[in-house]
Write a structure and sequence with these properties.
alpha+beta; Ubiquitin-like (UB roll); 2 domains; 5 helices; about 30% helix
């Protein structure tokens, strides 16, 4: 953070390996800053209470619900949004496995899967179920999403 003025403060955020400096309210969520101040609309407002995962981003290699995080809490972290992913295996797998319908939840699911693969190249079935249960899709069954994740896992070399 750089400076304060009245009820506003200036903050610098590292998002998708780019530095953004914005004046915000201390009460602004990361989701609102991403969408309304930076035009990064991949993180979606859904439930706005951390249940649905439509707003998922990755912060320091961990998935986080951006609706539940104040933007000031993301200072001095590395934030990855769906806009920062470029042709990753999980993105290709979502297309190949038809792992989306309306697409509203898709960025959150792609990021939760990407974060899982960053931490564990060969997660157990239980871990996959646990991680995927943090996000909600109202259009599809979860089988296609799980198939996409498993197709990436199966393509990775055993360690």
């Amino acid at each position: 953070m750089n400076s304060y003025s009245a009820n506003r403060l200036k903050i610098t955020l590292n998002i998708n390996s780019e530095m953004y400096e914005k004046e915000i309210l201390a009460s602004d969520t990361l989701l609102s800053v991403l969408r309304d101040k930076l035009g990064l609309t991949g993180a979606k407002p859904g439930c706005l209470n951390g249940d649905c995962g439509a707003c998922t981003v990755i912060i320091d290699k961990r998935p986080m619900k951006s609706c539940m995080l104040l933007a000031v809490e993301a200072f001095d972290t590395e934030i990855l949004t769906i806009e920062g992913l470029k042709d990753t295996p999980i993105q290709r797998a979502f297309v190949e496995q038809f792992a989306f319908q309306c697409g509203y939840c898709t960025p959150g699911f792609i990021l939760i899967c990407h974060a899982l693969l960053l931490t564990d190249h060969h997660p157990t079935n239980e871990k996959i179920t646990t991680w995927l249960s943090s996000n909600i899709c109202r259009c599809t069954g979860y089988q296609e999403i799980e198939n996409a994740l498993r197709s990436v896992i199966n393509s990775l070399p055993l360690e």
